[in-house]
Design goal:
heterodimer; A: mainly alpha; two-stranded antiparallel sheet; 66% helix; globular; B: alpha+beta; five-stranded mixed β-sheet; 3 helices; 10 strands; elongated
């Protein structure tokens, strides 16, 4: 009997594996599966962590004794710049995103993320971007202006080398990857939960990831914009940050920290999510105050966007603004304290099992509370004035980041190791690793608080003897080497683990969440069948769930159609609404990323014709990608026997594509808002802001192009509304019409741009205006192109009355394009006219 | 502040260890729930709330004193300092004295430093005299300092400014009133 069941579930496994497995050999590079991509993110992130750590060792070696000359000043500047850059951009964010990409679908009972090809594209963008940045270090021309890249130090005058270009282009590349992963995680969490898993039944980890992903969506665009502007200033001489011509170096600082502070919480939240996941498991009780934690997460997300100025307390901003940001900075202690006490309360009264992950969580608590306390001190402006940019801040930041991120991450690694390997971690070895890293860390950084209070500034490559800093620095360096030893042992532990670890039993920690219902190591499809979920703790409610899932007793177990399928559910209630058909292995992500990498390199080398070619190539690949959708033979050709209840997502009007578009537009809108911020900031604050006598734009053609755009959007919306109502008469003709009118708008706008006497190299006003016009042109052009493509697809039969999905995805993009046009018109033409800043010339 | 921080740190660690290794306190679900609620509200809301209020109550008046407001002690002495890669240009507008990498100030008199930069962002900092303030091209920030005793104070650039950032240092010499006048006299005639 048992054999019979086993062979049956074995057959199910074989059939699913055939559909879901990666291609053999090199074909594995075409993998889009979240398990493979998630692991790749994490492994790559760990490699970058080791590189970043090596750079830190160089720094500590140099500072161990006063007056050392192991590194020259120039080399030291490269090393500390790269240490910060690698740790923040190439380690912390990607590793956490990788962990989230790996875990989230398994926790919410899905077989993959919603946009698998985007996962793969994100990974390759990250890998190539990281390699490009690091190559500068190998060439000895790494950026050396600090990881914050303050202008004017990083501009073409003061950094004539290529270093900052590597940083700006490489980081932008990596950020694209981060944002795409953010969009994907948001939509996956909202739209692919198990049947019945309402928001309130979602594992707490997913709340943390949802918040993190949304913060990435809103937090990264300001830096992307700032990087683009600075690169334009460096490569083309456009004025944004230089004082002459009306720029302002402080604009860079604002944009950088609008990203930089949320970034800290983007790193902290998923790590706290690990803590909130592990503690209930080891306390053997549900998390006390789930609702408290959810509120704390949301509160943290909001407050963190109101704090960026606290990195700029010493730039001389008005006292009232300082007081506001100081209070806001302290406020963030409240949601953090709520979480700490929720954890305490959960442990309190639980029957706590001592284990390796818990040891790391204890380490996290000690270090993080200390970092939080020094953080509250730093939020106090007078104290901040004193210790800002000293080693005190270095110590604080490492307490928060290492304590708040690395320790929970390692706890999580040990906790989920059985998932990757099917084996259990070793307690003896793990204890050694813990005490070495914990001891080494505290020796290094606890003393550094004192070094900073004694007045040692940051970012100096050497110091004189006899200032009272000598022995502190020596001990810090010794501590850092102890920590490095711990990290080396950690690696060794992982290697031993995969070879000799004890075999894990099913659900080895007695956890409550669904990821432990998969096989270990996890299969490519996660679950043979997709269960209904009625509780926050499915495995505690029904310990037999893993078996019934594997036996195919729940939903979507049939796989004769060779589609990769998972459920698409309602964002709030979690009720199943559609069957998502997910794309299979594809080379397009790799090709797309290669094209973007080529673009990046040609911009670095300033070979602009090649850059143009690469852009065309990238656009081609991405359009081809979007071509393989709907009823395309590689996707879901219409079929008489296709499922109707629930239907396939490409047969509906409210699929995840629409959600993905909307979330992407949120990120895009943040970029746009940052540009508007830049405009208003420079206008009101820049010391030498000046505007041309007459508006450089031809007003009437500009107005006409806006009106034409409005008509195009109306025509498109009309077609989409009819399609939604089930009417596709003249659909193709209407789409062609919308595309043609859109092309008219594009042409008019282009002629306005070409005929405008703009001099972006001497006036910040013109430079910002130029960027805005190019932004509008890009959107008008893209909307037109995609609409023309839709028209062709209607003709071929990939889109139609039974396949209304794609025009619905495109519609918000048209609306957005219209919105940004008129907003720009108001901000750049109407407002300055009202304030009399410019006079309007005739048409 | 430090003592309080240490206290909180120890208390949280103690509670954690107690919670981890302590025995079950009560089996009564109702009572346990009330206890936990108290934990969260007490530790999560009241504790940080109270700490913030105290910090602000102490911090805001101190911050206010640091502002370059008009004083009743008479006119503050004005000195213009301009940061360069990697040296300090010092100018006394009243007496037109030009100095490099050194400042001289009278003891007990507020001094307003008008800070700006000729190239990249620098930051003016004399650790023993007080806070730092950035020197930003295109703007002037005013920092008020007051030395309480005659001495020579070390100062340095506190915002990373490129290759020789570590060597961008200066001294501030505070003189007693009479001595300062004498120095001023001498420096003016020397020019």
């Amino acid at each position: 009997m048992t054999d019979h069941i086993n062979s049956e579930s074995e057959q199910l496994h074989q059939r699913l594996e055939k559909v879901w497995g990666n291609l053999p050999g090199w074909g594995t590079l075409a993998a889009v599966n979240h398990t493979s991509v998630g692991i790749r993110f994490m492994v790559t992130g760990m490699v970058f962590f080791l590189i970043g750590g090596l750079l830190a060792m160089l720094v500590r070696t140099q500072l161990a004794l006063p007056g050392q000359t192991i590194l020259s000043a120039g080399m030291y500047n490269q090393v500390f710049t790269m240490h910060g850059t690698v740790m923040m951009f190439l380690f912390a964010i990607p590793v956490l995103e990788g962990l989230a990409m790996y875990l989230v679908p398994k926790m919410i009972g899905a077989r993959d993320l919603v946009f698998p090809r985007i996962s793969a594209l994100g990974y390759y963008c990250y890998l190539f971007g990281g390699v490009i940045i690091l190559s500068s270090l190998a060439l000895g021309i790494a950026p050396d202006a600090g990881w914050f890249m303050y202008t004017p130090l990083s501009d073409a005058n003061f950094s004539p080398g290529r270093g900052p270009d590597f940083w700006l282009l490489g980081i932008t590349f990596v950020e694209i990857s981060a944002i795409s992963a953010g969009v994907e995680l948001v939509v996956s969490i909202l739209r692919t939960r198990s049947n019945g898993m309402s928001l309130g039944k979602m594992p707490i980890f997913c709340w943390y990831i949802l918040a993190m992903a949304l913060m990435i969506v809103f937090g990264f665009p300001p830096l992307v914009l700032a990087s683009i502007l600075l690169e334009l200033e460096r490569a083309a001489g456009w004025v944004f940050f230089a004082v002459e011509g009306g720029g302002d170096p402080l604009l860079w600082q604002h944009l950088f920290w609008m990203f930089g502070h949320p970034e800290v919480y983007i790193i902290f939240l998923p790590a706290a999510g690990i803590v909130s996941t592990l503690i209930p498991v080891f306390a053997g009780r549900p998390l006390v105050g789930y609702n408290w934690v959810v509120s704390a997460i949301i509160l943290t997300g909001f407050i963190s966007f109101g704090l960026w100025v606290h990195h700029m307390f010493t730039v001389g901003i008005p006292a009232l603004a300082q007081a506001f940001f100081s209070v806001a900075s302290m406020m963030v202690a409240i949601p953090t304290a709520i979480q700490v006490f929720v954890w305490l309360a959960t442990l309190w009264g639980g029957r706590v099992r001592y284990s390796l992950p818990m040891l790391w969580i204890f380490g996290f608590l000690v270090i993080f509370v200390c970092g939080g306390l020094t953080g509250v001190m730093l939020a106090l402006v007078p104290f901040n004035w004193q210790v800002h940019d000293t080693h005190f801040v270095v110590a604080h930041m490492h307490y928060v980041l290492v304590g708040g991120m690395l320790f929970p991450l390692i706890a999580g690694f040990y906790y989920w190791l059985p998932h990757f390997s099917g084996r259990m971690p070793s307690l003896t070895m793990g204890r050694w690793v813990f005490w070495l890293i914990f001891g080494g860390f505290n020796l290094t950084f606890l003393l550094m608080h004192l070094t900073g209070l004694l007045g040692m500034p940051r970012r100096i490559y050497t110091y004189e003897a006899g200032l009272g800093w000598d022995w502190l620095n020596l001990l810090s360096s010794v501590g850092s080497f102890v920590m490095a030893l711990g990290v080396a042992m950690l690696l060794l532990d992982f290697v031993f683990h995969f070879r000799y670890g004890r075999r894990a039993t099913a659900n080895p920690w007695g956890a409550d969440t669904l990821e432990w219902a998969t096989t270990m190591p996890a299969s490519s499809y996660n679950f043979v069948s997709l269960p209904d979920i009625h509780s926050r703790h499915p495995l505690w409610e029904d310990p037999g769930l893993p078996q019934s899932i594997a036996a195919g007793e729940h939903g979507l177990a049939e796989i004769d159609h060779i589609r990769r399928e998972t459920y698409g559910s309602d964002a709030v209630s979690g009720q199943v609404r559609v069957i998502l058909h997910l794309p299979s292995n594809s080379w397009l992500p790799l090709r797309g990323a290669l094209m973007i990498a080529l673009l990046c390199i040609s911009l670095l080398l300033r070979i602009y014709p090649l850059a143009l070619l690469a852009t065309i190539g990238a656009v081609f690949v991405l359009l081809r990608w979007s071509w393989h959708n709907g009823a395309h033979p590689r996707a879901d050709p219409l079929d008489e026997n296709e499922p109707v209840d629930p239907p396939l997502h490409s047969r509906t009007c409210d699929g995840p594509g629409l959600w993905g578009m909307v979330v992407t537009l949120m990120a895009n809108g943040t970029l746009y808002a940052s540009l508007l911020f830049g405009w208003f900031y420079l206008w009101t604050v820049a010391p030498q802001w000046s505007v041309p006598e007459d508006t450089p734009l031809a007003l009437w053609p500009l107005l006409a192009s806006g009106l034409v755009l409005s008509v195009a959007v109306l025509v498109f919306r009309n077609a989409a509304t009819r399609l939604r109502a089930g009417n596709d008469v003249h659909l193709q003709r209407r789409l062609w019409l919308a595309a043609a009118i859109g092309a008219g708008h594009f042409g008019l706008l282009l002629s306005v741009l070409l005929n405008a006497p703009l001099s972006p190299q001497s006036l910040a006003h013109d430079a910002v205006l130029m960027v805005m016009l190019i932004y509008l042109l890009f959107h008008g052009g893209l909307a037109t192109l995609l609409t023309a493509m839709q028209a062709v697809r209607v003709r071929i039969g990939y889109v139609g009355v039974r396949l209304p999905y794609e025009p619905m995805v495109l519609q918000p993009f048209w609306t957005y394009t219209l919105g940004v046009f008129w907003l720009a018109f108001a901000a750049f033409i109407l407002l300055p006219m009202t304030f009399g800043a410019i006079t309007v010339g005739g048409p | 502040m430090l003592a309080f921080a240490v206290l909180v740190q120890l208390a949280v660690m103690g509670a954690w260890l107690g919670a981890m290794f302590g025995t079950q306190h009560s089996d009564d679900e109702q009572q346990l729930r009330r206890q936990r609620q108290r934990w969260i509200i007490g530790g999560g809301l009241l504790l940080p709330g109270a700490a913030i209020v105290v910090l602000l109550a102490v911090g805001i008046p101190i911050g206010h004193k640091l502002l370059p407001l008009p004083t009743d002690e008479g006119e503050a002495l004005r000195i213009d300092v301009t940061g360069h890669q990697w040296w300090w240009q010092v100018h006394y507008p009243d007496s037109d004295i030009q100095l490099r990498d050194e400042l001289h100030i009278p003891v007990g008199v507020p001094v307003d430093l008008h800070l700006t930069s000729a190239d990249v962002v620098h930051s003016f900092w004399v650790p023993r005299l007080g806070g730092k303030l950035d020197m930003i091209p295109g703007r002037t920030n005013v920092l008020r300092l007051r030395a309480d005793s005659a001495d020579t104070y070390r100062g340095m650039c506190a915002e990373f400014c490129g290759l020789n950032h570590a060597h961008m240092k200066f001294t501030v010499t505070a003189h007693d009133a009479g001595e300062f006048e004498a120095w001023l006299q001498k420096a003016t005639t020397r020019d």
